[in-house]
Design brief:
By secondary structure, the protein is α/β, with parallel strands linked by helices. Helix 3 links the parallel strand 3 and strand 4. Helices cover about 40% and strands about 20% of the residues. It has a five-stranded parallel β-sheet, with helices on both faces.
């Protein structure tokens, strides 16, 4: 009888899916995170439906999401749905220039980093979200 191979070892780096309506932003964030060597980008999505499918398919540790998909209501619904369906999933928000919408997320386990933040701030937000 052939022996089964053990499953591949999971990386110790946080595995993240990037969700942003702009594919150029997705690629920029992916490149930025890859250069750090501290985060593994395993998927991308540009809308709510694709984000849910990608999270289900890839089982990330965290999702880096700009909640304006294509509007704030859709993004907040996505965040709420992710939190309910995958309670252990960590969510890092990006893109807001002010605090609009943050009250809705009060008490949730989300982190925030500005799109204008440094590469280190993005990495820190994701790593900290996954280590809490």
């Amino acid at each position: 009888m052939p022996q089964l191979s053990p499953p591949p070892a999971r990386s110790s780096r946080p595995r993240v899916v990037i969700v942003d309506a702009d594919r150029r932003v997705q690629q920029s964030l992916s490149d930025l995170l890859a250069v750090s060597g501290e985060v593994e980008v395993i998927g991308h999505a540009s809308d709510v439906r694709a984000a849910l499918q990608e999270v289900e398919r890839s089982s990330p540790d965290a999702v880096l999401v700009d909640p304006r998909l294509p509007d704030i209501e859709a993004g907040l619904a996505l965040i709420s749905g992710l939190s309910r369906a995958w309670p252990e999933l960590r969510i890092v928000l990006t893109g807001w220039n002010d605090t609009e919408g943050h009250a809705v997320l009060a008490g949730s386990r989300t982190r925030y980093v500005s799109k204008g933040g440094s590469p280190e701030q993005f990495v820190t937000a994701i790593v900290d979200a996954c280590c809490v």
